[in-house]
Amino acid sequence: MRLGYFGGSFDPPHLGHLAVARAVADTYALDRILMVPTGNQPLKPNGATASYSDRFAMVRLLCEGDPRLQASAIEAPTDPPRPNYTIDTLRRLKAEGLDTELFVVVGADAFHQLLLWREPGSLLAIAEWIVVTRPHAANDELSLPPLTTAQRNRVHTLSTLDHPASATAIRAELASGGDCAGMLSSELLAYIREHHLYR
Q1: What is the Cα–Cα distance from 174 to 180, expressed in whole angstroms?
Q2: DSSP state, residue 100
Q3: Sorting pLDDT into bands at 50, 70 and 90, what band is 165?
Q4: What is the pTM of this model?
Q5: Which of 44-58, 125-139, 155-169 has the lowest mean pLDDT?
Q6: Boundaries of domain holding 75
Q7: Number of domains the chain is built from
């Protein structure tokens, strides 16, 4: 099993996320990609705008129609609350499927912060990484953190997508009454309006 882990706030999930997941699955022949909303992001102390339950429900809607994509609650909030560390999630996934080959899907901006994550060396040892950049990315976006040769060999790039969707821009447009055409599916927009999110 070639399994992708695609984690993030997904606040909200959008068509850019969907395009990335499908392109990664196609390019790297992944059998499944887990779309994982993070309950408590350590590097984003202010948290997400929408609740975890709403973000998870929206990710499930985003995954419909592509059997390779699956919403996962592996990083759901806990009681008492504790931060979600990617290394803990990857170790759980590895323990659940000993024959699983893990791939982490991440944007270039997040990957540049890798040395701030918990156990960066272990992260690069337990999984291969697919770093998504824009087709005409600046050199600083294409650069990698200081890595050993062995670690660099476990890092791949995908630079074929240039989707305009951005969660920050979507929240701003929704707050001003826009419909986010081209950035949200009709099902997601209907869910957001029904639950009065991002107003």
Answers
A1: 7
A2: P
A3: confident
A4: 0.93
A5: 125-139
A6: 2-163
A7: 1
